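Q: Could you fold this chain for me?
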Amino acid sequence: MATNPSFAEIEETFELLDDWEDRYRYVIDLGKDLPGLPEAQRSALTKVDGCASQVWIAPEIREEQGAAHLYFEGDSDAHIVRGLIAVLRALLSGRPASEIAASDPLAEFRKLGLDSHLSQQRSNGLRAMIERLKSLAAQAA
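A: Sure. Below is the predicted structure, expressed as structure tokens.
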């Protein structure tokens, strides 16, 4: 498995996996490949409220080609949530902040079918992570 697959590669892998348990394991494996966050970056400033598990998103805004681009690392104490962060990174990290602010990441997650296979708490947490990223992007744009 590629260390940092693109969202398109993740979509392709999902299409190849017939069983939802295999897809779920794949998302967990993506999370295992995340580098994690140093303890110093796990703070109230990076903590995402609204998640059942502990979640931190550490953003970095870089000026590239005359536009602000949002990059981020993330971590969680839950394996599946780490995987969701990995999918979000593949989808959003490195894109222009204005694009992220105007995007609909939940629609992309629906393409994977993840929205219908997550518990209500996990879905709420995913929405909280997306809202945080879109808010950071809107501020940067």
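A (continued): The domain at 7-140 is CATH 3.90.1010.10 (Sufe protein. Chain: A).
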